[in-house]
Specification:
This protein has 276 residues and is an alpha/beta fold. The chain folds into two domains: 200 residues, Survival protein SurE-like phosphatase/nucleotidase (Stationary-phase Survival Protein Sure Homolog, Chain: A), CATH 3.40.1210.10; 46 residues, no CATH class. It contains seven helices and eleven strands. Strand 6, helix 4 and strand 7 form a beta-alpha-beta unit. It is globular, with a radius of gyration of 20 Å.
């Protein structure tokens, strides 16, 4: 099986290296294309106004892994891999293992999810996988979970327009209760801007913040029909599943249309378009 591995933590990231070597050891053909440095929270940004550079990396990956360090964003990396660096298209795109969770509304900013979404946009099966720790943890367990999920044939029961966003609790294997199919929750942050002064006396700001670990449920807020809301409430959010000690597996799509609002907004339209 031909697998493309990417992420936003950079080519030297322990999570990426653990995932790539685990998949290669299982007999898969693995190509790694990652940013040459940390590019977290870049979302789906692309490099449009300067050239992209890619350099082969041989020192830190086994000889059977084709690895590249790219000067661009995570989305750039996947686009470049598919369009220039790989001889044949991959059977699946796997982004990770990320240092830190990508839960709830994190996915709107996440370079990890965006790299996987780039594969989805090209009609390829895609997985984003994150370990819910920013300071290290058991990447071996998360990598083994992805390896076993793909199996020998790499079959993913997803439509071409979906990706699977996986988050693994930073817990010993014996403390993880299992895996759950989940829906996207809400994860809010208490954000702060630290005001500082550089050596030349100019003011600058440094964004900091921490997650507010509540379990706000989007299904309780959005205008779903009652029967659909009840069905959704019966499924755990990704935020809740992680708090409960489960691996969360959330199908995501790039179509952001708010389906329940289409009828309401159609009725709200003015009867005619102004001429001036």
């Amino acid at each position: 099986m031909n697998i493309l591995v990417s992420n936003d933590d950079g080519i030297l990231s322990l999570g990426v290296r653990t995932l790539a070597t685990t998949l290669a050891a299982a007999g898969h053909r693995v190509t790694v294309v990652c940013p040459d440095r940390e590019r977290s929270a870049t979302g789906h940004g692309l490099t449009m106004h300067k050239p992209l550079r890619a350099e082969p990396v041989t020192e830190i990956y086994p000889a059977d892994i084709d690895a590249w360090a790219c000067s661009g964003t995570p989305s750039d990396c996947v686009k470049l891999a598919l369009g220039a660096l790989m001889d044949t298209p991959p059977d699946v795109v796997v982004s990770g293992i990320n240092h830190g969770a990508n839960l709830g509304t994190d996915v709107l900013y996440s370079g990890t999810v965006s790299a996987a979404m780039e594969g989805t946009l090209e009609g390829m099966p895609a997985i984003a996988v994150s370990l819910t720790s920013y300071s290290g943890g058991n990447f071996d367990l998360a990598a083994a979970f992805v390896r076993d999920l793909l199996g020998p044939d790499g079959h993913l029961p997803l439509s071409p327009a979906l990706l699977l966003n996986i988050n693994v609790p930073n817990l010993p294997a014996t403390d993880i209760k299992g895996a759950k199919i989940t829906r996207q929750g809400i994860r809010r942050y208490h954000e702060q801007f630290a005001k500082r002064t550089d050596p030349r006396g100019k003011t600058y700001y440094w964004l900091a913040g921490e997650a507010i670990e509540d379990v706000e449920d989007p299904a309780a807020q959005l205008p779903y029909p009652p029967h659909l809301r009840d069905d959704l409430l019966a499924i755990s959010t990704d935020v809740q599943a992680i708090q409960d000690g489960y691996i969360s597996m959330t199908p995501l799509q790039y179509n952001l249309t708010a389906i329940p609002e289409l009828t309401t907004l159609s009725q709200w339209l003015p009867p005619s378009v102004p001429t001036a």
